[in-house]
Design a protein that fits this description.
By secondary structure, the protein is of the alpha/beta class. Helices cover about 30% and strands about 20% of the residues. It has one domain: Rossmann fold, CATH 3.40.50.1820. It comes from Sphingomonas hengshuiensis.
Length: about 260
């Protein structure tokens, strides 16, 4: 893996492959925030490749999705010609701006709050958007083909960002998230589709919540799909369906939207 923390990158000279990067976050007083990128071997500044943004779960890092997928993110990026980026979400402890109540079972593992929970969540959201803007600039991304996915707390982030900035995303995929019974599904109408994935062995998130969200979205005229992975757990169901998820994204182009 190539480590380029704090290094300026331009579309004219990046090395392809795995890249561990960081940037000075202006909303956090210039604090260095890590993020991870996979740049496929076919990348060039003239290719205008699409971007897949992966949001991790609670108390994790930008590396977690890559570690959980065990090479599958890189493989699918190569197969479809996608750039993949995983933000930290500021400190990895906040829900990307959604401000939903966290389950009482979740612990901060001794990490103190930097600020209020609401401000921390806003910083997590800002970090995601910062990283997307940096990746779009640095890797000459086609802004019409940006896809968003996430598991657990990452699903919360996907749903929040899909409702607040639907114009940014071509399609989204989410798995293992908390209940959101009043989620405004009509906000998803600008998307080309939503794929929900749920593990049959998930003991934390309820399949009824995913079914309810998918059904309400379908009733609103949205191309919403739910895939249950019988052997999937809360943490790994999404990895079992990663090839199909990338194909779902590839089938939704959005260049003519």
């Amino acid at each position: 893996m190539l480590a380029l923390a704090g290094c300026a990158t331009t579309p004219h000279s990046p090395a392809t492959g795995d890249r561990s990067l960081s940037y000075a976050m202006p909303q956090a007083g210039g604090k260095q925030i890590p993020y991870r990128v996979y740049l496929p071997s076919a990348w060039s500044p003239r290719a205008r490749m699409p971007l897949v943004v992966v949001l991790h779960g609670y108390a994790a890092t930008a590396d977690q999705p890559f570690e959980e997928a065990a090479g599958k993110l890189q493989r699918e990026a190569e197969r479809h010609g996608f750039v993949v980026v995983s933000p930290s979400g500021y400190n990895g402890m906040a829900d990307y701006g959604a401000n939903l109540p966290l389950p009482s079972s979740l612990s901060r593992s001794g990490k103190p709050l930097d600020t209020t929970p609401q401000a921390e969540s806003a910083l997590a959201e800002a970090d995601v958007l910062n990283v997307i803007d940096r990746a779009t600039r640095d890797y000459a991304i086609d802004s019409r083909r940006i896809y968003l996915m996430g598991n657990s707390m990452g699903m919360t982030g996907v749903l929040h960002l899909a409702r607040t900035q639907p114009q940014r995303w071509c399609a989204v995929s989410a798995s293992g998230g908390p209940p959101w019974p009043d989620y405004p599904v009509e906000r998803l109408k600008r998307l080309s589709g939503m794929l929900l994935v749920h593990g049959g062995r998930d003991t934390l998130a309820k399949i009824a919540d995913s079914e309810g969200l998918a059904n309400r979205a379908k009733a609103a005229g949205i191309d919403a799909r739910l895939q249950v992975i019988p052997e999937g757990t809360h943490g790994d169901a999404w990895t079992h369906y990663l090839a199909e998820t990338f194909q779902f994204f590839a089938d939704r182009d959005c260049r003519n939207r």
